[in-house]
Amino acid sequence: MNRKKFTLIELLVVIAIVAILASLLLPALRIAREKSKMAVCKSNIKQINYAMMMYHDDNNGYYPFSDNQNSSGPPGQYSWDDLLSSYDGREIRDTAALQNQVLLKSLGYNSDLYSCPSDTLQRTHWIGNAKISPASYALTVRYFGANWVLTNWARGITSKNPSRTQNISNLNSPSTTLTMVELSATNRIVGRGEGSFVAIGSYQNEQTPHEKYGKDNYLMADGSVKTMTFLGTLAKDGGGSGTPNDILDTLWDSEK
């Protein structure tokens, strides 16, 4: 019995159909893969928040501080993720290590909890990139002007001064108060005081690049994680929109 063979035209038609199907499926697969990465990021954020809640319990409700100038509080350079090490599973007991500018991988202080799989930006540091642990999350920061008056552009929850961090009991709208963001920046390293907090003005161009998905994960003070666009974070509770220079009543304002 003679077997029918594919003609060249039939073969080309099959290849064309496969190519069309692939072109239709690949974008959907990329989006699904990116959503999976975002889910990992969301899980990381929630676990960090659990550690922060335990920190609240031991520190009268205050958020952790980040001191990168040795100007206040205990000696040494601290990052808020240093202060969470007793609650996030790392259990760092070496005081000297905590006071260093970074926590080195070689000392066993690496933690995937602080790294988002979508954040592939290369970190840079003078001690060598192979020794540092990238971090993909930053707390919102608060800055004060003359006479300790809070600015209109940085009204977050952490501060360089431990006595000036926000207290969770002072938050009037926890469900719409932003406390932590995804951040992709070359200086965002686990254990580094500088770069561990962020004001909206510097953040607006440093969101995690979720393959043009257009949204990032944001932690609210009530522990919920919202996935939204950067512009969505500027929405005011009473309607309208703020700006990076005026964040009053937006998600970035912990004093509203």
From TrEMBL:
<dbReference type="InterPro" id="IPR000983">
    <property type="entry name" value="Bac_GSPG_pilin"/>
</dbReference>
<keyword id="KW-0488">Methylation</keyword>
<feature type="transmembrane region" description="Helical">
    <location>
        <begin position="6"/>
        <end position="29"/>
    </location>
</feature>
<protein>
    <submittedName>
        <fullName>Type II secretion system protein</fullName>
    </submittedName>
</protein>
<keyword id="KW-1133">Transmembrane helix</keyword>
<keyword id="KW-0812">Transmembrane</keyword>
<keyword id="KW-0472">Membrane</keyword>
<dbReference type="InterPro" id="IPR012902">
    <property type="entry name" value="N_methyl_site"/>
</dbReference>
<dbReference type="InterPro" id="IPR045584">
    <property type="entry name" value="Pilin-like"/>
</dbReference>
